[in-house]
Design a protein that fits this description.
With 263 residues, this protein is mainly alpha-helical. It contains eleven helices and four strands. The N and C termini lie far apart (56 Å).
Length: 263
């Protein structure tokens, strides 16, 4: 039997998880920005040259968040024993992973392409100062509206080899399949911008090189949001979403990172 209380509870849970997901994305952006800071500056340099007020406020915010989430983590029931660390892959396994990723991106592009649509004009207008018009005209999008992009088939084989800490495709806001972007839920400006950065990276690097760098970065950091290709996409998205953003060229930023071998 239908109960109003059940409906209210489901609505509340939906709103809670929407807010939680938004906070999670903000935290990922902050994590990526901090990771980039750590790559380029030592703690001594930050203390010596950084603005003291910004450093203190950042440290206070990080401490408060750590305390909040640590308390939550303590109270989350353990679903299972922690997974063992992933093994060190062989050169042959790395090459296989690169080919798996290339094939997956091509196959998913072909799968979603028939149901895609071009970018809306208002999105093109909002992004015109950041991306080349040719890219904005070429990219196709699809909103899955509650459906989820399934995990790649090769995940089962990778897990059988001992690689368990794989990116959760179904939990991502969007995935870029070359020039096709699929959104797990609805399109948001943050997710669109992030996905378009990946489209530029693939265009400039070529699919094979992009896959090589993504796999190498993931095997090095063991987390998808600290892969340099992802770090850059998160950082540029955060810059775009600032209250008073300055227009910048994503293409120039990507070329700079390629030239400096930051990926």
């Amino acid at each position: 039997m239908y109960r109003q209380d059940d409906s209210d509870e489901r609505t509340c849970a939906s709103q809670l998880n929407s807010a939680l997901q938004h906070a999670h994305l903000e935290l990922l952006g902050a994590h990526c920005a901090t990771h980039q800071l750590r790559l380029h500056y030592s703690t001594d340099e930050l203390i010596r040259f950084g603005r003291r007020d910004v450093l203190r406020k950042s440290a206070e915010a990080a401490s408060a968040l750590h305390g909040f989430y640590t308390e939550i983590e303590k109270r989350i029931p353990a679903d299972s024993a922690p997974e063992p660390p992933s093994p060190v892959p062989t050169g042959e396994q790395v090459a296989q992973a690169v080919q798996w990723l290339c094939s997956y991106l091509r196959e998913q592009r072909a799968h979603y392409l028939p149901a895609t649509a071009p970018l809306h004009q208002h999105h093109k207008a909002a992004l015109a100062g950041y991306f080349a018009s040719d890219l904005l005209d070429t990219v196709r999008i699809i909103e899955l509206k509650g459906a989820r992009i399934p995990a790649p088939e090769f995940y089962s084989h990778a897990r059988s080899l001992g690689f368990h800490q794989l990116p959760e495709i179904s939990h991502m806001d969007s995935v870029t399949f070359l020039d096709v972007i699929a959104f797990n839920e609805l399109l948001t400006e943050r997710a669109l911008f992030h996905a378009l950065v990946h489209a530029v990276q693939i265009e400039f690097l070529g699919l094979e090189r992009y896959a090589e760098l993504w796999v190498a970065g993931f095997l090095r950091t063991r987390a998808h949001f600290t892969v340099p290709l992802e770090v850059h996409a998160f950082a540029l998205s955060a810059k775009f979403l600032r209250p008073n953003p300055e227009t910048f060229s994503v293409e120039e930023n990507v070329r700079f990172w390629i030239d400096k071998k930051r990926y």
